From TrEMBL:
PANTHER family: PHOSPHOLIPASE-RELATED. This is Monoglyceride lipase. Residues 156-394 form the Serine aminopeptidase S33 domain. Keywords: Membrane, Transmembrane, Transmembrane helix. InterPro entries: AB_hydrolase_fold, Hydrolase_4, MAG_DAG_Lipase. It comes from the Eukaryota.
Length: 418
């Protein structure tokens, strides 16, 4: 494997603002300047105004006192007769809780994730290396997140790794890597963050990356409480790496882990035109879920392995639509925050990046290495590699680099304890 460890500044081509999935460039915001886009915007604003007026429409829900049925309607009557002569009491629709459409879509994805795990476990029953489980994790906001774990079967557990996937993908994609970690004595936990995989939320939509940061902190606390005494590491990819990095800037979180591994972190993400940064906050409030262009089923080039690309972009649990306005704004926001706080990163870390990455800028990883005051930091830049390092043809070599660093950290901790 042709990899290099560098401390010098590199100068890759200036990237477009892209996600780690298939979302198009955020600088597509500029398309709103065209006359056609302005007309579409006016129609959207008109719909938004009409939506605001909906609460003033008199709507009632008929609740059967006998059968508990619910029938929605518009009526001025307070009582009526339901099927079979049952007394019907009419109440305002606002008093009856409703499940949003996103709930059903997320439930379908969750069911798919659970069924897929069952099939994979059956295929691996003979000679299995890992004990895999899934669990549902409730957030403080009331959302339900889909989580997974991989436990070593024949190797003693010596450490924990909490893994966070990148934007638009899901934790199940890291099954192969998790088993490699199991083989080396690491129990792995992973969480599909909000709007991803089997978790609640509109697919590919992120209202706030701070939600994901808070969820990671809570999930980490749960993992540590269930595995008392075991050293714990966090590993994040792309936007997931940015979430991990922001979480460990909290001293309370940093004190509970022994280090972080960041692959292709979304640190250096800049709009290709200054106006994007100006209009993104505005449109993220007005039309947060709006998508700017058609989906890209082929996706951006994130791996040099054609089979890995085919598997990613044919996976229904991977979001293949173009970027939503709010999501793009959140990426820019967390990137800006991290750039302003690199000098506060004191946690031990290993950062890895491909020099040919067109999704996130490897210069951001170099800046992290140069500016972070951490006394235990390492960087590996892989010449010519793309964004999804753990899905590149040299994935086994990259996994070995990560595992070697984790084992080295464990060795240092053991020496200190002795």
């Amino acid at each position: 494997m042709d990899s290099t460890i560098k401390a010098a500044t590199i100068a890759p081509p200036r990237p477009l603002i892209r996600t780690s999935g298939t979302s198009g460039p955020v600088n597509a915001l500029l398309s709103l300047v065209s006359l056609r886009a302005l007309r579409s915007l006016l129609l959207l604003l008109n719909g938004f105004i009409l939506l605001l007026l909906l609460p003033f429409r008199r709507r009632t829900v008929m609740v059967s006192a006998v059968e508990g049925e619910e029938v929605e309607g518009v009526s001025g009557a307070r009582k009526g007769t339901g099927r079979g002569g049952a007394t019907v009491v009419r109440v305002p629709a606002g008093m009856v809780p409703r499940r949003p459409r996103d709930f059903h879509e997320a439930a379908a994805r969750r069911g798919m994730a659970i069924r897929r795990m069952g099939v994979e476990k059956e295929e691996e029953d003979e000679g299995r290396r890992s004990e895999r489980e899934f669990a549902l994790f409730a957030t403080a906001r009331g959302d339900t997140l889909f989580t997974r774990s991989w436990a070593p079967v024949s190797v003693q557990t010596k450490g924990l790794v909490v893994l966070l996937h990148g934007l638009n993908e899901h934790s199940g994609r890291y099954n192969y890597f998790a088993k490699q970690l199991n083989d080396n004595g690491f129990k792995v936990y992973a969480m599909d963050w909000i709007g991803h995989g089997g978790s609640d939320g509109l697919h590919g939509y992120v209202h706030s990356l701070d939600y994901a940061v808070d969820d990671l902190k809570a999930f980490l606390g749960k993992v540590l409480s269930e595995n008392s005494g075991l050293p714990c590491f966090c590993l994040g990819h792309s936007t997931g790496a940015a979430i991990v990095l922001k979480a460990v800037l909290d001293p309370k979180v940093e004190a509970r882990i022994e280090g972080v591994v960041l692959t292709s972190p979304a640190i250096e993400v800049q709009p290709s035109h200054p106006i994007v940064a100006v209009v993104a906050p505005i449109f993220s409030l007005l039309i947060p879920r709006y998508q700017f262009s058609a989906s890209y089923r082929s996706g951006p080039p994130v791996s040099r392995d054609p089979e890995a690309l085919r598997a990613k972009y044919s996976d229904p649990l991977v979001f293949t639509g173009s970027v939503r306005v709010r999501t793009g704004h959140e990426i820019l926001r967390i990137s800006s925050y991290l750039q302003q706080n690199l000098s506060k990163v004191t946690v031990p870390f290993l950062v890895l990046h491909g020099t040919a990455d067109t999704v996130t800028d490897p210069e951001g990883s170099q800046r992290l290495y140069n500016e972070a005051p951490s006394t235990n930091k390492s960087i590996k830049l892989y010449e010519g590699f793309l964004h999804d390092l753990l899905f590149e043809p040299e994935r086994d070599d990259i996994a070995k680099d990560i595992i070697d660093w984790l084992c080295s950290r464990l060795g240092s901790l053991n020496r200190i304890q002795k």
